[in-house]
Amino acid sequence: MRRIEDLELKNILLKVDGDGIASVTLNRPDKRNALDIATIEELVDIFTTLPRAGVKAAILRANGDHFSAGLDLVEHHRENRSASDFMHVCLRWHEAFNKMEYGGVPVIAVLKGAVVGGGLELASAAHIRVAGPDTYFGLPEGQRGLFTGGGATIRVADLIGKARMIDMMLSGRLYRGQEAVDVGLCQYLVEDAEAKAWEIARNAAQNPPLSNFAICSAISHMQNMSALDAAYAEAVVAGVVNTQDAAKARLEAFAKGTANKIKPDA
Ligand code: 1HE
């Protein structure tokens, strides 16, 4: 099992604070955090390692003015890849983003500037997306003569529906502001996305890890199942999670009337 301190990272900064919250920072601002293959491999390593390292939540953020300009178009052009080469590149993107989505650690993305193409594919693998006022979302693949290869056909279509996704890809339509929230590209639109993401992460980190594991992996897995199989899997997961020791003190407090209440101003 690899340890966080053993990871060799060049394009991503990784820190874990004393509360077990990791910040994963895309760090190629001069290239607008375009995703080259080295960055994708670092994402694979990071999101393979974090769930086994006791990390309670992760903030996915970026240095510079833009979250990510998507596929590194210059590298792609320079490498002159064959169809088979690029298919394998896409499989590494899927590996990275699946590790994020199915790893069981809550990932909260802090979005700003361009969240486009593969940048949106990356953001859509996070569990919660928090956008700042200057964030915009696009799928300019059509304009570049490309197609999505990092899971957008699954995740972005799931967030916004296929008609909107096709519109974005065909017409180059960009979404931003409240409209981006309304269509489902992000869940929060706030002045200070960074602060909001940390607040969400710190709250989520208070939940028992097994509950977060189920929330952040079981729901995604169940979406891939028939309703009958999903209901069965839900019962099995709930059997394990809802009887865990970590829940007992919380349930006892509720039974005694000392637990917090679920009210808007509580
Ligand atoms: C890049 C990339 C990139 C910037 N690959 N190098 N994505 C796109 O089509 C978006 C392409 N990027 C842009 O439209 C703009 O760069 C931005 C709107 C994001 C930012 O504009 P700006 O004016 O701040 O920066 P810039 O001057 O365009 O770029 C600064 C540098 O970043 C420059 O490099 P330099 O060496 O000349 O300084 C750019 O080349 C570099 N850069 N974006 C490589 N994307 C799995 S399939 C997924 C398919 C897709 O993702 S398609 C969408 C691709």
From TrEMBL:
Superkingdom of origin: Bacteria
InterPro entries the record matches: ClpP/crotonase-like_dom_sf, Enoyl-CoA_hydra/iso, Enoyl-CoA_hydra_C
Name this protein carries in UniProt: Crotonase/enoyl-CoA hydratase family protein
Keyword field contains Transmembrane: no
NCBIfam families attached to this UniProt entry: PRK08150.1
Protein family per UniProt: Belongs to the enoyl-CoA hydratase/isomerase family.
Residues spanning the signal sequence: none
Keywords: Lyase
